[in-house]
Amino acid sequence: MEREEADFVARHPKSQQLAQEAKEGLLSGVPMPWMVRWPGAFPLFVDKAQGSSFVCADGHSYVDFCLGDTGAMTGHSVEALSTAVGRQLKRGLTTMLPTADAQWVANNLSERFGLPKWQFAMTATDANRFVLRFARHLTKRPKIVVHDWCYHGTVDETLVVLDADGRTVSRPGAIGPQVDPGLTTVAVPFNDLYAMEEALASGDIACVLMEPALTNIGIVLPKDGYVQGVRELTRKYDALLIIDETHTICAGPGGCTREWSIDPDFVVIGKTIGGGIPVAAYGMSAEIARRLEALMVGHDLDVSGVGGTLTGSALAMSAMKATLSSSLLENDFEQTIGLAKSWAEGVKSVCTEFDLDWHVQQLGCRAEYWFCPPPANGAQAAASVNPELEAYLHLAALNRGILLTPFHNMALFSVFHKIDDVDKHTGVFRDCIAAIAS
C-alpha cells in the first residue's frame, strides 16, 4: 500500500496541485463530500470523459467502471445527448411550463416499467421524498418500512440500520437527523419475510420502500420468492410498495420491475435516464394516479412539499428523451450484461487460482467481488467490509488505469466498454492478488 500511495502521488502532480488550491474555496477541497473517499492522498481531477473512459489532469487515461456511480451508465459525452441538449440550449432551458418531450418520456417509461402515470424530479432522493409523502397521504399512516443498511439517496428517514437490540437507529455516519428515525421508520433485514410481516402487521405502515436487490452496501440479491413475498404482504396489510430502480436499472430496460414482474404501486428511477443531466422520475399505478389527481388542484398546491422550480424543465425532458430513445435498450443490455459476466468470470478465475474464498455477485450489467461468501442481507454485507484491503485494491487498480466504483469492489458496464477492458481488469486484479500473496 505504501508503494501504491507513493506511485499515485508521483504520477499526479497536477491533480495534487489542483487539490491543494481547491482547499482555499471548497470545504475539504471538494465540491461534494463523498469525493474525499476516493483512494489516494488527494482526489483525482478529471480533464475530460468520453465513452467508457476519462483522462485526468495529468493526461493519464482510465477505463471507467464507476460511470459516475450509475449517473453515466449510458457512457460519457454520448452524441445523441450532446446534440439534444445543445439544441435545447438555443430553445430555452426552463419556463415552469410543460413541453411535448414530457409526454414522450412518460410514454417510454410506461412501456419500460408497466406503470401508466409519471411525474418528475431533479434527483432520485427528491423522487423518494415525494413518493413517501404521497404514501402517507393516501394511507393516513405515519411510518415506513425500509431494509436494514438500505440506501435511497439522502432521504433522512431511510438512513437507518438495526442496532444490536433490533431497534431502528440512524445509520453510522448520518449527520443531524431531525428526529429519532425510530419514530418514522421500521428497518427489517433483507430476505426476511417473517420480519417484514411482523413490521407490516402493526397497522401503522404506509409503505415499503425497497430496492429489489440491495446495491449501496454491495450487491445483495433476493432469495427466490422474496420480492414477490413482499408484494403479497403489502397487499395483505394495505401498505403501498415502492420500488427504487435507480441502481437496479442495470438489470434491463425496465429494471427488476419488468425483469421480475414485480407490479409495484410506485417506481422511482433517477440518474442514468438523463445521461448525466440531473433528472429523476416516479411512476404509479392507475389507481394511485386516480386518487392523487384529486390533489392536483387548489390554491396550496405549490406548498405541498412536492415539486421544485427546475423540476420537469425543458432541458431535463430533452435529456431524458435523448437518453431513453438511444440508450438502455434491449440490445444494449445484451452487450453490457455479457461484459459483466466476463468480468465476473475473470475475477472468479483469479480467486480460484489463489485459493481465495471470495465470491462475485452479478446483477445485470453490474458485478462486484466480495471477500466472503455472498451475504444474504445488509448487516452481513456491512460486516464483510475490509477497508484496508479494499483501499489497496482500488488504489492499485487506479495506478494501472482502472477506476472502480468507490465504497464497493464493483464494476458497471456501458455499451462503450470492450472485452479488452475486462481482460485488463482481470490482469490487474491478478497482479494485485499476486503481490499480496508474495
Instruction: Report helical residue fraction.
Output: 25-40%
User: Count of helical segments?
Assistant: 14
Q: Unreliable segments (pLDDT under 50, ≥5 consecutive)? A: none
Q: What would the principal axes of the Cα set say about the shape?
A: globular
Task: Please provide a written account of the structure.
The chain contains 14 helices and 16 strands. Among the domains are: 32 residues, no CATH class; 248 residues, 3-Layer(aba) Sandwich (Aspartate Aminotransferase, domain 2). Helix content is 38%, strand content 16%. The chain is globular. It is α/β, with parallel strands linked by helices. The protein has a 7-stranded mixed sheet with strand order 4-12-11-10-9-5-8, with helices on both faces. Strands 1-2-3-15 form a 4-stranded mixed sheet. It has a 3-stranded antiparallel sheet with strand order 13-14-16, covered by helices on one side. The longest helix has 24 residues.
SSE map:
Elements: H1 2-11, H2 13-22, E1 46-50, E2 53-56, E3 61-64, H3 79-89, H4 100-113, E4 117-121, H5 124-139, E5 143-147, E6 160-162, E7 168-170, E8 185-188, H6 193-200, E9 205-210, H7 226-236, E10 240-244, H8 255-259, E11 266-270, E12 280-284, H9 286-292, H10 314-326, H11 330-353, E13 359-363, E14 366-370, H12 378-383, H13 387-399, E15 402-403, E16 410-412, H14 419-437
Parallel strand pairs: 3-15, 5-8, 5-9, 9-10, 10-11
Antiparallel strand pairs: 1-2, 2-3, 4-12, 6-7, 11-12, 13-14, 14-16
Helix pairs in contact: 1-13, 3-10, 4-10, 6-7, 11-14
Key words describing this protein structure:
single chain, alpha/beta, Aspartate Aminotransferase, domain 2, 7-stranded mixed beta sheet
